[in-house]
Amino acid sequence: MIRNSFSNPILQNGADPWITKQKDGSYYMTVTLGNEIALWHSKAMTGLGSVSPKTVWIPDAAGPYSHNLWAPELHYIEDHWYIYFTANDGGGGDDTRRVCVLQLNGDDPMNDEWIFKAAVNTEFPGLDGTVLQNRGELYFFYSGYGHFPDYGSAIYAARMINPWTLTGPNVLISAPTEPWEKQGGMAINEGPVFLRRNGKIYLVFSASATWSDDYCLGMTTISESGELLDAEAWTKHEGPVFAKNPEAGVYAPGHNSFTVSADGSEDWLVYHAYSYSEAEQDRSAGGPRSTRIQKFGWKEDGTPDFGVPLATDVNIPLPSGE
What we know:
The chain is mainly β. It has no helices and 22 strands. Strand 2 and strand 3 (27-32) form a beta hairpin. The mean pLDDT is 95.
């Protein structure tokens, strides 16, 4: 029987999902596991959740940055593979949390050796580091802790001299100042990720505390020709661009990534969410979040249109070309 649809989630326990499509048409996925980093590899985007993951790195339990491994991202930069992830020393506070970098010694992310390269020299403790290449330069964006004026995290950016070293100031790009960014008891902008289209760069981020029903996606925009480290050059969208859908039983959708369909003709949103509300079950200590994917489109003015999170009982057409 030929399958022509799928339903979410594609992975039942998969927070902070990162999916990237490669030149050979296959997909890699990684999610937060806490104590190790693993990769999923599949020829089909919708098949990622049904293949066995491969553990590619386990930290020395007695070493630094060996606890609370969060939000890994796989990047191919300057002919090398890198994984960026968040970790700390096991303490309960945020002050030891940093973004770390693994570099692949070889060409096969699933089977070659990953080496701990460095903890990125960010000005502030933080999490959720990602890299943007623009006009021949590398930029690092991450979520740094502080008071804005409420305690939480904000999106910072800095120039890079290589994929693990920053140079110059860490510029505040987006701070959580509005009520929709401060739900759940913390003021949060985190998980920066990028879309590019029609000469624009769209920085999409997650807002509010991840355990809140109102965890959501926000967005700020700049021209590709703009100065990325000029905070005034960015235009922040008013309100969330992707938020909970109680009627569909989807809560706290966020910490996303982007990929494309097998034939490259469709844009797909990758995110995690809960299928129950805070009122139904306490989430203050965290809890399993599932990985979901859905196609999105573009508005007439050229901005992305993410729609609303789809229910888990909805049959979704397979990505084009799959």
